[in-house]
Amino acid sequence: MTESLEKMVFVVGAGGSGVASAELLRREGRAVTLFDERDREAVERSFGRSLPEGVAFRRGMPSAEDAATAGLVVLSPGIPSGKLPLSALRAASVPVWGELELGYRRFRGRVAAVAGTNGKSTVTTLIGLMAQRAFPRVFVGGNLGTPFVTAASEGAFDWGVVEVSSFQLETIDAFRPAVALLLNITEDHSDRYSGFAAYAEAKMGVFRNQGTGDTAVINADDPEIASRAALIPGDILPFSLVRDLPQGVFLSGDEMIYRDGGRKERYSRSLLRIPGTQNVENAMAAIAAARRMGIPEDAVREVLSTFQGLPHRVEFVRSLRGVSWYNDSKRTNVGAVLKALEGFSETVVLIAGGKDKGVDFKPLRDPLSRKARGAVLIGEARGRMQSELAGAAPVVTADTLADAIRMAAGMAQPGDVVVFSPACSSFDMFKNFEDRGEAFRAAVRDLAE
């Protein structure tokens, strides 16, 4: 569907991407109404400023009666589409896009999109840094932070490197990245999707509109992606930790080998400043995408050898009495925690827990039984987590993060690592994962020598 330029645009959800979309559309001269379930004062307090001039505001969601007055609905990713009057909108031929789709239709340049349950932000940042060394104008953002629509009024770009979530991919229409990456698919957002298949289908949407000349970078070791690879229309370029690939990027001893056509390049694993096998996978995905984007080999090597990781992702905080402490607050699902735990050779004390998203915590039993001295659980999910993990290792619960840190300090022995890797979202106790990670950092630094 195409938007009607004569009618009102409804922007549903007044978060960062919603307000950015409303601002863009007002600059284009469109009549815009912004909807949110909070009142206007609460929305403006969350931003610390007034809403864009000329944008109307309504509390609540659009009604079926509103559908006849709309030419376009832009839906924020945090709001399920079921909250819209979808039947009425379809009957009135009103397109429902997300900010990602709106940004894509206005963006002037080629797009590389990074999807996956885990590792998206790290890979997006790696590719973005590589691209910025090779091209004059590169946008880096999306779900990572800066909404894609903010680039729409900034002229032409060589590349837009965009992190995309499953929520954003639910509302695409024409979105077609020249290079699309799918890093992995593991259980997450069970509170949003009817089942795992629906979640996986949303992730696979990053490839939906690709065709001849487009590149699909996929994790050849991920069984969920491998089982769906035949559905991918673009030219597949895989990466693998465990197998030799005739084309793609794979790990051979201590080298990451890139093969593409007649080209073969070697990148030493020792280049990487970021720890863990999950970051070897992230580096291989970035290499594959960067080389297909035309980024020179030297630029790829320079970034791999200097990038020290993003905050709240296996972030070293301090060493105290022979115990190393790591802030891994961004790990909001079980698959991510599994990757983090496997990246440590030391005995681990795990601090986990938070808002319960309804996922299965039992996959954590095996690594806890093999390599954990114990686990300390917090938050809304702690009771269910304790029940599902009992017997795999000593498991205790704490009322606050500070209490959990003190309990973990008493449990750990010299040579151990304490890892705060929650496997849950943060919204039961904190504003977001950054707020949670900063609280962890501060409490660990306050531990007495």
Report on this model:
The protein has three domains: 8-94, Rossmann fold, CATH 3.40.50; 101-306, Mur-like, catalytic domain (UDP-N-acetylmuramoyl-L-alanine:D-glutamate ligase); 315-445, Protein-Tyrosine Phosphatase, Chain A. It is 31% helix and 24% strand. It has helices spanning 16-27, 40-47, 86-91, 99-106, 120-134, 166-169, 196-204, 223-226, 277-292, 297-306, 334-342, 365-371, 382-389, 401-411, 433-445, and strands at residues 8-12, 32-36, 56-59, 70-75, 96-98, 108-115, 138-142, 156-163, 179-182, 215-219, 235-240, 248-252, 255-260, 263-268, 315-320, 323-327, 348-353, 372-378, 395-397, 417-420. α5 runs parallel beside α9 and α5 packs across α10 (297-306). The mean pLDDT is 95.
Largest sheet: 9 strands, mixed
Strand order of the largest sheet: 7-8-6-9-10-11-12-13-14
Number of domains: 3
Q: Give me the CATH architecture of the largest domain, please.
A: 3-Layer(aba) Sandwich
Shape assignment: globular
In the predicted model, the low-confidence regions spanning at least 5 consecutive residues are none
Share in helix = 25-40%
Oligomer: single chain
Terminal-residue CA separation: 63 Å
Structural class based on helices, strands and sheet pairing = alpha/beta
- What is the H level of CATH, i.e. the homologous superfamily of the largest domain? Mur-like, catalytic domain
Radius of gyration: 23 Å
Quote the beta fraction: 15-25%
pLDDT average, as an integer? 95
CATH topology (fold) name of the largest domain:
UDP-N-acetylmuramoyl-L-alanine:D-glutamate ligase
Q: Count of helical segments?
A: 15
CATH class of the largest domain: Alpha Beta
Number of strands: 20
